[in-house]
Design a protein that fits this description.
It contains 14 helices and 11 strands. With 369 residues, the chain is α/β, with parallel strands linked by helices. The termini are far apart.
């Protein structure tokens, strides 16, 4: 069991909450689905993906991102080319069956007229093809839509989705409902039923599960929890060992629940020479929002020669308000010649009362004057 490598992984999250066709009711919860799933996927205790590697629709930035078939296709193909460890694709919205009996995923402008579904929706076959062509060792597809179970048979076929002969290997498909049943989106709820249960499990974990929440563990939980609440039983199909890949650490598993105690345990293990154990507890504490743990994790990664994750953790610490991390970023930016960023971070560190930051900020301002 393991978490994916965040530097070598990509995610594409497609969620559509408003529709122009009166036959397709709006799904207000879908926007929250995507926003909250992004938080899990980019959090230190979750999959820890970089935000820029977690593509989704951004309403506030013109032009609207991932809102039409062309932009979706371009981004999905790019993600499939870049991802080396994990490629995760998530869709929430309306799933429609076309005249050909195939599954189509609705866009904001999709028509519910049977003869127009294929012309206005996303053919699932295109998503399947992108996954089949992906370089990633593991591919994960999560469908939260009506009739999403149709994708199970499609992904499980041994015929190639490209040439009719090649098997789609290393793919795990989680579908919110069987092929002949609709998914549920409870009125007034923050999330749709399936994604809401998924998020709750990832965010809180369970004492009954191991340290990592694997795809198999996630599905087994959802398969018990959702029917008990009157929702359709979800479906799962995976090949090879991708079901053992985790999307988050189990936040209810560790025997230490207090973040401050996690940091103390990490310090103790580091003094004993157990850097692996120290990293583990720093990560747990970082997942609870401890900026000092993020900073120390960056230091350990730097010592191990892992410069990219070291920088990621240091920036996370600085953005979370750690004065020392702010100061380090300021000094590093100064040394690399980025004086604008240097001044920015030194000012932030100085504002916390850090003496060395005040001193270096004064030096920088004198040189720039």
């Amino acid at each position: 069991m393991r978490l994916p490598d965040p530097m070598r992984s990509r995610a594409v999250l497609l969620g559509f909450d408003t529709f122009t066709d009166p036959g397709l009711p709006d799904l207000p919860a879908v926007k929250n689905n995507v926003d909250d799933l992004v938080e899990v996927l980019t959090s230190p205790w979750g999959t820890a993906l970089w935000d820029k590697h977690c593509g989704r629709r951004r309403e506030e930035a013109p032009p609207v991102f991932l809102a039409d078939l062309t932009s979706i296709g371009a981004h999905l193909v790019t993600a499939a080319m870049e991802a080396e460890d994990l490629l995760l694709v998530y869709y929430a919205g309306h799933g429609l069956i076309g005249p050909d009996g195939e599954l189509y995923l609705s866009l904001p402008e999709t028509s519910s007229e049977p003869d127009l579904v294929a012309w206005t929706g996303i053919p699932f076959s295109l998503v399947r093809r992108a996954l089949a062509n992906a370089r990633a060792d593991s591919r994960v597809l999560i469908l939260d839509c009506c009739f999403s179970g149709l994708a199970i048979g499609a992904m499980a076929t041994t015929t190639s989705v490209v040439a009719g002969q090649l098997e789609v290997a290393g793919t795990c498909t989680l579908a919110s409902s069987p092929a002949n049943r609709p998914s549920n989106a409870p009125d007034g709820a923050r999330h749709t039923a399936y994604t809401g249960e998924l998020l709750s499990f990832l965010q809180h974990g369970t004492a009954d599960a191991p340290e990592y929440l694997t795809l198999q563990t996630i599905h087994e939980h959802l398969a018990r929890a959702l029917p008990s609440k009157g929702h359709p039983r979800p479906e799962l199909r995976n090949t090879q060992t991708v079901g053992r890949l985790a999307l988050a650490r189990n936040r209810a598993h560790s025997g230490i629940s207090d973040p401050a105690a996690m940091v103390r345990e990490a310090v103790r293990l580091e003094r004993l020479g157990d850097s692996v154990g120290a990293k583990r507890w720093y990560r747990e504490a970082a997942g609870s929002g401890r900026s000092d743990a993020m900073r120390e994790l960056g230091r350990l990664e730097e010592q191990d020669g892992n410069r990219v994750p070291a920088g990621m953790w240091r920036r996370s610490a600085a953005e979370s308000g750690d004065p020392s991390a702010m100061y380090e970023l300021g000094v590093t930016s100064w040394h690399t010649g980025d004086l604008v960023q240097a001044e920015r971070w030194l000012r932030k560190a100085a504002a916390t009362g850090l003496p060395e930051a005040m001193e270096d900020l004064a030096k920088l301002l004198r040189r720039r004057s």
